[in-house]
Design brief:
Keywords: Endonuclease, Hydrolase, Nuclease. The chain has 4 helices and 13 strands. It is an alpha+beta fold.
Length: 197
């Protein structure tokens, strides 16, 4: 895996640096998530219990499946500057060596193997649209979207094969069905353990 290199105009670099400064200086209540989504610094309230439970269940399954050189991080800032994005995914699977080498609170999103987002009712569209496009653009190989608020009922979608700002749907299931995460994760995720409320 290598960081994606993109030529950017000096004006964009200054704008990006300004956005990151605002992100770093934003004071938010404990548990809130501060992100930059499409050039706008956003603050999301802490997630509810079912959201946290889903993240915890996925985290435990990933810990059991991954080898020691991988880390599963919950509050890691991931940069996508060419989309004016700095996301804090619910879970990011990243080689420990990448995180060890970073001095700040963020890494390039391109260093991740898997990003996991669990939707919240108030900002589900960010996870479905802006973040999916951002992660694809960064070249993150796998994006797992747990959409508790999908119009047809709770669904889990695994995206892969990023091309530009678009992923291909590798698998989509309803809560209760199994979902297979490919290598290097190699995990059959039992979504029946997820709360539906």
């Amino acid at each position: 895996m290598s960081a994606l290199t993109v030529d950017r105009a000096p004006d964009h670099d200054r704008e990006w640096d300004g956005l990151v400064r605002i992100w770093e200086q934003t004071k938010a209540p404990v548990g809130c998530k501060v992100e930059i989504i499409e050039g706008i610094v956003t603050v999301s309230r802490p997630p509810d219990g079912p959201h946290c439970l889903i993240v915890e269940k996925i985290h435990r399954r990933l810990c059991a499946a991954l080898s020691d050189e991988w880390g599963i991080y919950r509050t890691l800032g991931t940069e996508i500057p060419f989309r004016n994005g700095l996301y804090v995914p619910d879970l990011a699977v990243v080689p420990d060596a990448v995180v060890r080498g970073e001095q700040g609170r963020r890494i390039p999103a391109s260093a991740a193997e898997l990003m996991v987002e669990v939707t919240s009712k108030c900002n589900a569209s960010h996870d479905r649209i802006a973040k999916a496009a951002g992660y694809a653009r960064a070249g993150v190989p796998l994006y797992l979207l747990v959409d508790r608020w999908a119009p047809g009922g709770p669904t889990i979608t695994l995206y892969g094969e990023p091309a530009g700002d678009v992923y291909r749907v590798l698998q989509a299931v309803k809560f209760g069905d199994g979902l297979a995460l490919p290598a290097p994760i190699d995990l059959l995720l039992d979504t029946g353990i997820f709360p539906t409320g």
